[in-house]
């Protein structure tokens, strides 16, 4: 079987997000709310740029494809029972939606993990809107995926800020114990 090209995977993941009503601006608002208290110069453009950067990661693209597919199949009633009911009802103890999304933030470290937990629990911004409502579209996986994109983009901004701050400073006199 022919190998699937990364470009194809990325394009499909972005397309799925758009089809399901997710906008980059909507995610950027969450990122801005999470990071602006620590970064006075932060702009919405910085947040958008960071979101596109984390969407380059395969882990995240794959999680989006899997999660959105399950939401869509549940909407069409094409999952078998009892999984169909679990996904449809967004059953609180189901947890696979959180686990899938959480798995894709590990590459961005502890700030991504804690931010994920926070925005998911508090249902910040777009996540609140996506919450699965009775009779409406099923977003059981999508809300967590949005949280994971926002969390990774937030963590990336936090680490970049420190790098930028230290860039202008004179080099420290720390000795390299491996040198010489
Ligand atoms: Mg969920």
Structural write-up:
It contains nine helices and no strands. The protein is an all-alpha fold and 180 residues long. The chain has one domain (24-163): YutG-like (Orthogonal Bundle), CATH 1.10.3760. Helix 2 packs across helix 9 and helix 6 (96-103) packs parallel to helix 9 (142-167). The protein binds magnesium ion.
The pLDDT mean sits at 93
Q: How would you name the CATH homologous superfamily?
A: PgpA-like
**Succession of helices and strands:** HHHHHHHHH
The bound ligands are: magnesium ion
The global form is: elongated
Corresponding CATH architecture: Orthogonal Bundle
For the report, how would you describe the main beta sheet? none
Number of strands: 0
Number of helices: 9
CATH class descriptor name: Mainly Alpha
N- and C-termini, Cα separation = 51 Å
Into how many domains do the coordinates divide?
1
List the helices and strands and how they pair.
Elements: H1 6-19, H2 24-35, H3 44-54, H4 58-75, H5 83-88, H6 96-103, H7 109-122, H8 126-130, H9 142-167
Helix pairs in contact: 1-4, 2-3, 2-9, 3-9, 4-6, 4-9, 6-9, 7-9
The structure holds magnesium ion.
Keywords:
elongated; binds magnesium ion; 180 residues; single chain; YutG-like; mainly alpha
